[in-house]
Amino acid sequence: MSVQGTILVLDGVSTNRIMLKVQLTAAWYHVVQGEKLKGLTALVRRTRPDLVLTAQTLPDGTAADVKKLVMNEPDLVDVPVVAIAPQNDKGARLRALADGLDDVLAHPFKDTLLLARIRSLLRARADTQDLQVNDGPQSMGFAEPETGLIAPPKAARVDILTHTARTGALWHKALIGKTRHNISWHTQSNLQGLLSGSVPDAIVVELDANPSGLNILADLRSRGATRHTVLIGVLNDNDASKASEALDRGADAVCLGGFCAQEIQLRLENQITRKARMDQMRASLKKGIAESWIDPLTGLHNRRYAMRAIGQIAHQAVRTGRGFAVMLADLDHFKAINDSFGHASGDLVLTEAATRMKNLLGTTGFVARIGGEEFMIGASNISRPQALKLAEAICDSICKAPFHLPDQHDPIPVTISIGLKVSVPQLWSQGNDPETTENLLKSADKALYAAKKAGRNQVRIRQSAA
């Protein structure tokens, strides 16, 4: 998205394009113009618009054709397309929504409403782009390649918020026969009833002269639980100023001219489909981030996580004045296990060793696999005697119970060597910071080397990084 925001205006009538350009340029948007479908593919690839405003009818096509063309461009699949319909043509508005357009504005419209709708759609697109890395979550291996819009859930939860119980019941009855979603309703005075249950996928809010509806929009958008819920406002009149304020307060869409069940149903389908896509992207990104800290074989944390965790433990020690421990552990003669029993058996030994160490450590700290058969253990709020006892327990957890392999009749013995470094705030030099992560690991590594040299299957502790 450009700093200004690039808006593509499509209209076969030059005066309409000029008027829109004047309005949008005055609001500091960069405007690109076109008049028909022919050549549009090259135009969108060259200009990469952040939003498209198109007349519902072009000389050689329709707004629906524009939407399909933009959707066919993988890098622009999230670009919103808004149709501009003729004056007072409700049928045209409903057709545009049915065709999957992101919104419809009907002539004549005020600058305030046009700009509020643009701001709302650009915010939504920015949210989508925030979930992408280098134009797509798959670029870091966090997701499957983009395939366009995702089908919405079979039955989303939709709540209606109205001023009176009578209106809520009427809207509920009208929507029940037009949508596949689960519909319930509450009065706005009973917002707690809505928030006390499971989080709705969409909420339809009645707006009128009473400011409570606008305040509810802002409240719902600010809450963590409903931050990603679809919010649709319904105005009983065509008040552009109030519609603009609703959009700026967090509404995803506003229906003008009173409740229309068909329009609500179409907007719900479009918005819930978009929400489903966003939810999947968020889940994919969270999963990818989590997996970037995990060793895929053992399920332990990896070196990347361990290095950051040790730094955090050290900083925590500065605040609390409590000691912490760093251990480097290495399975003894692991190459011989791979050579004698095969790499698959070696992997089983690694996995079982990881499980034993993780179960023993519990919530005391973390265990990470940082190399082939090498592990790092970190523990906070621990004294030197406690750390030594923990290291010896880890050593015993490996050596005292042999490892069973699927193709071997007899279990095989496995041992581990551990180098321990304990850092205690009381021993730090006056006025000096604790040792760096690099020095802590050097100390633990030297202790590990000493344990190996002394015959393996034991713990050695080092007092300093010298």
From TrEMBL:
Record EC number: 2.7.7.65
Segments forming domain Response regulatory: 6-122
Catalytic activity: 2 GTP = 3',3'-c-di-GMP + 2 diphosphate
Enzyme class: transferase
Domain called GGDEF: residue spans: 322-464
UniProt-listed Pfam families: GGDEF, Response_reg
UniProt-recorded name of the protein: diguanylate cyclase
Organism: Ruegeria haliotis
